[in-house]
Structures are given as structure tokens and as C-alpha cells.
Amino acid sequence: MDGNSTKPTLPPELFDWIIGQIHDDLSLLLTCSLVCRSWLASSRYHIFRYKVVTLRPRNVQAFVRLITSPSSTIHPYIHAIELVSSDTLRDGYNSQWLDSVIHTLASLPCVAEVLIENMDWGHINSSTKSTLLTGFRAITRLELRASDFESVSHLVQLICSKPSLQILNCDNLGWVDPFSEVPPDSIPQTVPLMLHSLRLRDCYQRDILDWLASNDALPPIHHIHFGSIHPEDTHSIGRFLQRLGSSLWTLQLQFWSLDPGGDAEDFCTRVNLAHNSALHTIILDKFIHYSTHSFSSAVGWIPQLMSSVLSLKEFSFGVAIRDVAELYSDLGDDDPIDWSGLDNLFCHPRFLCLKSVRFWISGGVEFNRAMYAITAFLPRSSERKMLQFNDGTPRLLD
After folding, report:
1. What distance in Å separates the CA atoms of residue 167 and residue 112, rounded to the nearest whole number?
2. pLDDT one-digit tens code per residue, 291-311
3. 356: which strand partners?
4. What is the rounded CA–CA span in Å between residue 304 and residue 50?
5. What InterPro entries does this protein's entry cite (predicted)?
6. If 0-12 CB within 10 Å is exposed, 13-18 middle and 19+ buried, where does residue 285 land?
């Protein structure tokens, strides 16, 4: 062999492809990242792709030292950040830990997702508040949990400061005044027009929906998750869904009260889903729930809920029970489950588009036993191969 010849090498794109095949194996990815410098970038991309940097008061200083080190090279790989304050606020809310890191986080170039939990907007200092509003403008997903705002206006200000926002999740939020004046600044108060997914659970839904509906330009929101429906929110829900029209594709919700004037009746009375002509999936959480299984969530309202949605292709139900016996209706139940009536409804000629009736099974019951029991309750739907079963709580499938 010629002494000047070099060893053959494979193209780097091939190594990138090989590493991509183990994208969900963290141990192997970590090993690959240590093999050689040329493998580091591809390995890190996949290591951080599904990983979230979770910062709390107890670990934030260690992260600051890491990220500000002159030898640190992970900046372009961090794409998702969680900021989780302590939920034990005996001495009041303390934002000092957030103050120490927020400017560094806002300078990261590739952050696309931000989650904030246990935040009190009124107790954050002005510099940190300003960074939260003027930074992170490229994020596409914002999730807010267990946090308080002085007014929904401050929440709106935060949302509007993210023009690229596509997914907004609001869980367990509170505020004292529905709307109040916010200090004038350079942040535009325009709803992000790329917003396509919205989750509003355990918050004043009416305040957020009324603000969204008040905009001249409404984003094409395709997926909405309302969580529990409250009667006082149903007017706003009805107006908003009417305004949304054919943009809506999937709707997820749950009912608790079946009494006259309760949330199920108010929703069916005040919300006309006929306006949503492209709605193809309804997900009903807690259809049967072990804490109230004898009542069965909104069984009597399902026909009315479906009656105006002729475009419906899938109806999903959450079933959380401890024992398969909870699927059976006792003679003493005030609202027995009319399985036969549901079976006839699912197979009614009016709903020609309905192809799938999906049950999400959780709560400790043996999955197969629950599946076989529900299949036996719905023979016509089973014969038409409409029934689908999944393990876990209801969620939107890709």
C-alpha cells in the first residue's frame, strides 16, 4: 500500500443518520457524544430534543454557573425550559431565584417552549417582568400553571408579547380583577395569529375567551381543551366557538353537574356546535369516573351534544374506574348508563361520518376486562368495527 494513502472515511451525513436512529435511547446518545468531536453536535441535538431544562430555586445557581462558563457549548441545544417556583409560600412569594437567571435564559438562541409554574406576577420585580415580556419572542409554546396575576390584562400582555406562539396552555390560573389598565409599553396587544392549540383548565375561561373574541383578527385555533365546564363560562364559550367557526377541529371537555341548570345542560343550551362545521373529534373526559361512576358524566346529554355535529368522525370517552363492575348500571342509580341507547346513537344514519368511538381506560381496572365489557355493551358499534381502546387518560392523538 502506498504510504501516502489515507484511510477511507464515511461522509458525516451517514453518521448523522445513524445517530438519528437511536434518537430515543438516551444512554446510547450520551455514549455517542463522547466518541469524537464530530459526533457531539448530532448526539446533543437528539439528547436535548425531548429534554426539558427544569429550573427551581434549589438548582438555579448550578445552572447559571454551567451556562455562563467560558467553556459552555450547550446554548444552541436548549429548546425547552421549565421555571418552577416553590409551592410552599409561607413567607410570601420570592422571585430572587428567577431574577438571577431570567436574563441569561432570554439570551439563549433556540428556546421554543417555556413553562412557568407557581408564579405570582404581582410580586415579580420590574426588571424580571420586563424580560419575560420582551424576551422569548420566538417561543411557539407557552404553558402557565398554578400562577396568579393581578388582572387578566397582565396575562394578555404576556401572551401578546409572543408573536410566534402556536400552543397556549393555562392551568389553574387566578386573578382578582377581570381587566385593568397595564402600563403603556412597546409590546403590541395583538393576539398571536399562529395560535392553533388552546387549553384552558381551572381558570376564568370567560375572561380569556371574551378577550380573544374581541380581536378583529382571530387566529385559526384548531384544538381546544376546556377541562371542566362551569355554567358561568358557557355564554362566553358559545360566543367564542361561534366566532371560531370552521377553524375548530377537536374539542375536549368534561362535565360534573347533571342537575337542571348544571354545566352539562348549560353547555348544550348555550353552545351550538353546528357553527363548527369542520369539528371532527370530541373528547369527553370523565365519561365514567370512579368518584362518581354511578352518575356517569353527561350520559343523557351526549345525544344533544352530537345532534348538531354532523361532521363528527371520532368521539372519545374517558373511563376511570377501579373495577369493571362500575361499568354496570345498578337499579338504584339515579342516572343509569343507557349503553343500548348509546350504541344505537353511534350507529344512527344521521352520523354517517362517525367512524371511531374511542375509550381511554385508566384508574386501576384491568384493561382487557374493561375493554371486553364495553365491547359487549355496544354490539352494533363493535360489529361495525367502530370501537377503539387506549390505556391512559384522554388525549389528542397525532
Report:
1. 11
2. 665 554 556 778 888 888 989
3. 314
4. 41
5. LRR_dom_sf
6. buried
